[in-house]
Amino acid sequence: MAVKPILLAAGVGERLRPFTNVLPKCLMPINGVPLLEYWLASMRQLNIDDVLVNVHYRSTDVIDFLSRPRFLNWITYTEESHLLGTAGTIRANKDFIGDSSCFLVHSDNWCCCDFQSFLDYHRFNRPINTSITMMTFTSENPQSSGIIESDERGVVIRFHEKVKKPPGNKANAAVYLVEPEVIEWINENKNVTDFSTEVIPAFIGKIATWHNYSIHRDIGTIDSLLKAQLDNKPSLPWPDKDEWQISFDAHNIHRMIGDAKIAKQIS
Fold first, then answer.
1. Which of the pair, 262 or 120, is modelled with greater confidence?
2. How far apart are CA 15 and CA 20, in angstroms?
3. How far does Cα 152 stand from its chain's mean position?
4. What does the pLDDT look like over 170-180, one tens digit per residue?
5. How many helices (H) and strands (E) does the chain have?
6. Can you say how many angstroms the Cα of residue 203 is from the centroid of all Cα atoms in its chain?
7. Per-residue DSSP letters for 47-93?
8. N or C: which end of the chain has fewer CB within 10 A?
9. Could you give the 3-state DSSP secondary structure of residue 158?
10. For residue 7, what is the enclosing H or E element?
11. CA distance 80 to 60
């Protein structure tokens, strides 16, 4: 099964201001390394050599990051003049996906797990008649998450997007493996722009789940970003620092995060 990843990295990150005034959400550092770099490292460790990243907010920063020698010839970016929405980005890049499975990732999430097991489950073990595999995790704040209910096979039977009284804490991690029939459906339904609120409801009963028992955080708030700094740092396939990383080490964002840590400890 060929896999074509699309890493969604275009978001603004309003809840992360003032941090996102100086750096896009996808480049927020986790233990000194940009969040997006961990995702690209995971793709490399899976021997995936053709990855697409969409950019919009502070796109120059992201493009500069993606222009490093370690990403040449296997990372492509597409710049959106206005946000297309998750499904809109898929539709705009259907030729990149072709007849492959799409590895769709909200790359502003901090996620550590066995991605090979995730791929293998989708390839070999997902229930029959399912065309999406959704990664799930146990949410600390289910009211702010998309909570799923599943049957005995792990197939999604109900989905609750950020409701006040969710029926559990098993949440959508916004990491998916998506089959061509779903891509075709998105392409045919031109008015559909959002994967979570429009595509998922349309495919209830056809969505398998794979649970991440390791680390998964939505880096959408300052508190969540600070918690991520305490997590174990996974190894990278390129241990040496390049010129971009040396420059990034001196970025003001590190001081801002340090000050926020101190303020949180005082309060």
1. 120
2. 9
3. 27
4. 999 999 999 99
5. 10, 13
6. 20
7. T---EEEEE-TTHHHHHHHHTSGGGTTTEEEEE-SS---HHHHHHHT
8. C
9. strand
10. strand 3-8
11. 12
Residues 230, 224: Cα–Cα separation, whole Å:
10
Helix (H, G, I), strand (E, B) or coil at 263: helix
The full set of domains in the chain, from first to last, is: 3-141+168-266 (3.90.550.10)
Mean predicted lDDT score pLDDT of the chain = 94
Q: Which two tokens stand for residue 227?
A: 């918690």
Rounded Cα–Cα distance for residues 123 and 223 (Å): 36
pLDDT digits (tens, 9 = 90+) for 20-45: 999 999 999 999 999 999 999 999 99
Backbone region of residue 115 per phi and psi (left: phi > 0; alpha: psi in -120 to 50; beta: other values): alpha
Answer positive or negative: Cα dihedral of 27, 234, 147, 3.
Answer: positive
The token pair at 42 is 């995971």
- Which residue carries 């600390």 as its tokens? 140
Do residues 4 and 74 lie in contact, with contact meaning Cβ atoms separated by under 8 Å?
no
Would you state the pLDDT for residue 266? 58
